[in-house]
Amino acid sequence: MTSWTDRRTPLPSLLARSRDRWPGLWVSLLSGAVAAVLGLGVFALLAIALWVGAPYPDDGPDGALRVAAASWLLAHGVVLFRTETLSGVPAPVGITPLLSAVVPVWLLYRAARDVTDGEAVEGTKAVGGPEGAEGPEGPEGVAAGPAWCGVAAGYVGVGLVATLYASAGALRPSWAWTLVCLPLVTVVSAGVGVWTTRRWPYGALRVLSREEHKLFRSAGRAGLAGTAVLVGGGGLLVGLSLVWHGEAVRESFLQVTQGWAGRGAVLLLAVALVPNAAVWAASYALGPGFLLGAGHGMGAWSPTTAPSPLPPFPLLAALPGSGGGPLGWAVQAVPAAAGVVVGWCLARGACAERERGWDAVWSVTRTVTGVVGAAVVCGLLLGGLAEVSGGPLGVAALARFGPVGWHVGAAAAGWVAGVGVPVGVVVRWRSLRGMRKRWVEDRGAEERRVGGRRAEERWGEVPVASAVTSVPAPVASEPVEGRADGAWDDPDLIPYEVLAAEVDPFLPDGPEPTPSPPEGS
User: Fold this and answer.
1) Bigger pLDDT: 238 or 298?
2) Cα 5 off chain centre by
3) Cα–Cα distance list, 7 to 2, 4, 10 (Å)
4) Which of 106, 241, 455, 463 has the most beta carbons within 10 angstroms of its beta carbon?
5) CA atoms within 13 Å, Cβ hemisphere of 179
């Protein structure tokens, strides 16, 4: 009698069956795990370098590696808890340095893109890994579904192991935030990598017409441009504020810690938080501003000032004073510039396909619709950046730092739409006006060329200059073909040379005398 254990499918058969059903899955899993290990390695390298440079480190290398793992999780938006506090109550740390978040996001994007393109498949085969499909020009990429799922699963698996390792350190990650933020960042970043290779949205948007599709893409690009202008303008405001408060920034940098290792760590943290400060400055210019603890909001038109005393930190020392006055009016240039850029981009897109005919030019309604759509995209992007750029730094009064996402998003959409709509309409009108003028000039020139070509076909390809100098002007006493009693039967048959000789006084009356040949020739 055969037992149940004898009827079970052996593990190698299950692995082979899954490999046949999901070709390239193992390559994707390996690529996701490698991307996670590379990101952890970058943070571990920085942590070990700071630990080696510290004169009196509190922990050994194991503690430095646990801090590196916790910092890697913080770059994904995971909230950490400091256990070593004066009150003994764990304090949350939830402000994600946006510059450090670029490392895991870029590694995930590249892993998913390489797997889908086939580069990771070729590299895996080179080291003796699982084989993938190979086309006539080399290894083919993994399908979108297995690539996306495999990279995400491999990355999240390594992230869970890192969470277990960091849970015994001084900065302990929250499991609730880990189970939400880590898979979310992984799935979105890997999905974008697969998207850029397979062009999924263009298949999903087949229900739209060609003009609607073009409007959709133009609005998205203009929204990205407007967001870049807002964040870049915020970074410019941060730089100007650091220069203006240079003495206070230098004193806070020297006061926060002692020794070169500590100051190097503070400098790295400040550099990693510069994108956060740019988003905060953009929120300040838009109007909603940002929070510095409970009940302390700062904005371009807010009369409140920063709470005192603030922790000694270079970026906090560069905070502006109360809003209003010349400062409040000056910072309005940042959202106004974003609206101008969005309106200009959509207006140029409205006239981009003039060569297809005047029917291809967008109407005013379509242009305004594009500007409004770009404003919505800009509001969503900047609102999301504002939400992830802040977070808690403790409890009670330190429970909230940074801008409120939906406030900033609504203000950005309002500013871009309010400025971009009139700018788009005016730029479209001026562009069409210039195009019509050039079109009229080109059409006139084309008609003149066509008229000259028809004259050549009728009278022969004879240059005008030679015709004028070689054909004598007819006189009434001489018989001329097509002329009776000095009058032409059809004015259209009058040769151009005759008309030119009659209306242009600078043309000769007749042919130049031909010199006689020398005697004896």
Assistant:
1) 238
2) 57
3) 7, 5, 9
4) 241
5) 3
